[in-house]
Amino acid sequence: MAFTIEVEEWVGSVWHRFITRRASPDFPEASVALESMHRPLSVLFRAMGGASGIGVEAANARDLMLRRNLLQQVAGTCKQLPVAWCDASNLRLPQSLAVYPEVSLNQDLYRWLALLAAQAGEMRHWARDNQRWTQAILERFPAMRPRYERLVEAHLQLRPDPDTLPRAESALERAICQALREPGSVTQFPRSEVAPWPLPMWLYPAENLGVPQATELAEEDPDNNLQAPPVERKGMRKRAKRVEDSTSKGGLMLFRLENLFSWSEHVELDRQGDDSENEDASRVAEDLDEIAMSRQRMRKGGGLKLHLDLPPTDVDDIPLGEGVKLPEWDYRKQRMQEDFVSLQMMLPRGSEPLGLPLRLSPLARKLRRQFEHLRNDRQWLRSQPQGSELDMQAWLDFHVERQHGQCAERGLFMEQRQNRRDLACLLLADLSMSTDAHLDDEHKVIDVITDSLLLFGEALSAVGDEFALYGFSSLRRQQVRMQELKSFKQRYGDDTRGRIQALKPGYYTRMGAAIRQATELLGRCKQRRKLLLLVTDGKPNDLDLYEGRYGVEDTRQAVMEARRHGLLPFCITIDQEAGDYLPYMFGANGYTLIKEPQQLPFRLPQLYKQLTQP
C-alpha cells in the first residue's frame, strides 16, 4: 500500500513538471534575475530623471483575465503573470524576466522598463499613456530606436495570432500590435471582456500595496500601535484582502472530558496581532500569492484594552522635562507639517556610574594617545613678517614679482603656533529594535554601538573637543524618544559611561525628528565648526506613514535643514544596502559604510579624526 502511494506521488510530480513546463510561455534557460541588475537599473532610472527617493524593487505576479489555451487550462498556469508598474513611491519590476529566448533581450527589456518608468507620470489611460511615454523616449534618445524595434519584433512573434481570436479580442490585439510598432498612432482601442496578453514593454497601473487592516485600524483607533508582521523575502510585498471573521459559525468540536487534565481562567483578549515571531508562518507567507486577514470586531466597551507596546512608567526610561513639538516634511503635499511630531528627552533607567569595561581598556589607551597629539598639534603659518624659518614659497613669489617690477610687501617667514580646535560634535545613535539583532554568536548590534559610544567618548575627552552623545528611537509620531547620554554642558566620566552601558534596543527609526532636535542642540554651540554624526544600522521607518519614501524624504529634508544652519551632517552605517538610499539623503560624500560591523568601535574615532582635520 505504501509503495503504491509513493508511485502515485512520483508520477504526479513528474506529470506536474511536464505539463507546467509545456504550458509556460517563458524561456527559463534565458532567465535574467532582477537582483543581478538591481544596481545598474537604479542608476539608469535616476540618471534619466526618475525620482531619487523611489527604490527599484521586485513586483509580485498579478491576476489577469486572459484567454488561456487548453494546455494552460489543464496545467492551471498563466492565471498570474508578473508585470511592471510605477507610482510616486515605488518602481516595481518583475523579479525575473524570461520573456525572450535570448538573455540579451531580457536584459534590454529591464533597461527599457527603467527608462520608461523614469519618463512616466500619472497614468490616465494605460495604452495611450504608454504610447506617449515611449514616443517621448524615442524622440529624446534616437539611438534607442533600433533596440526598441528589436524588442518589439521579437515580442510580436510570441503574441497570439489575431486570426485565431474572437472578433473583439482580435480587433484589440491588432490595435496593440500597431501601437507597439508605431507608438502614438493608435488613439482608440476596441473594448474586450478578456484582457490582452501581457505587454512586458509597457507599464501597468499601480497596485495598492497598503496594508488594508492598517488603514481601517487607524481610522477606528488612532492610539493603536500594532503593525502587520513583516514579510522576510526581500523586496516582495503580498496582496491582502479583508475577510470576515465569524467564530460563531464554526463547526462542532468534540472532545473527551477525561483528556482534560487542567482548567484555567480564559479572558478573550483582542490584540489583533502577536508580538512573537513565527518562523514557520513567515516561510508559509513567502509561498502565498495573496494573504487574507481578518479581525474580531468588538464593541468599544465590551473588551479589555491593554497597552502592550510601551513599558510601564515605573520601568520605562526617565523623562527629562516636557516634550517638544517638531515639524515633519510631507513630500506628497510638498510642505512642512508644523508641530506634527512629539519628542521626549529621556535618561536610561537603571543607569549608575560605571568605569570603562576592562576589555576596552587597551584600545581606549591607544586612542587617547592618538587624540592627545591632536590637542598638542602645532600648525605652520606662512607669509609672516617674522618667524623661525624662511618661507621659500613666499620668497620665490617675491623674487618673481621683483623681476617683473611688481614688488609688493609680503612676509617671508614661517612661524609655528598652537593649533586651536574650534569645533563641536554631536553623535546621534540609532537605538531601534533592529539593534537587537545578532552579529555573531556572542555580539549584538546594540553591543557594537555601545562599545563605539564608549570609545568615542574616550577619544574626544582626550583631545578636549566639545561633544554630546544621544540615542533615539520612536513609536509613531507621538512617541519619539531621545536618550541623553551626555550633553554639551556635562563632563564625560563614569556617569556617562554608566548611561551608555545601560542602553537597550528601542522601537523604530523616525530619523528626521531626531536630526531636527540634534540640529537645535548643536546649533546653540558657539564653535565655528559643528559636526553632526549619525550612527545607524538601517533606513528610516516607523509604524505609520514613515515607511518607504515618506521617511527617506523627511530625513533628506532634515539633513538639508541642518546644512542651512551651518552644520556638517555625516552618517556612519553598517547596513550593506545603504548605497540604495543614503546618497539621496546625505549626498555622495555624506556617509560611509562599515562593511564589518565589529570594526565600528575602532573606525568611528578614526572617521571623526579625518572629518575634523583642518
From TrEMBL:
Q: Which SMART domains match?
A: VWA
- Species of the source: Stutzerimonas zhaodongensis
Q: Where is the VWFA domain?
A: 422-611
Note the PROSITE patterns from the entry: VWFA (PS50234)
Record-given protein name:
VWA domain-containing protein
Disordered: region residues: 218-243
Recorded hits in CDD domains, A to Z, give: vWA_norD_type
Specify the superkingdom.
Bacteria
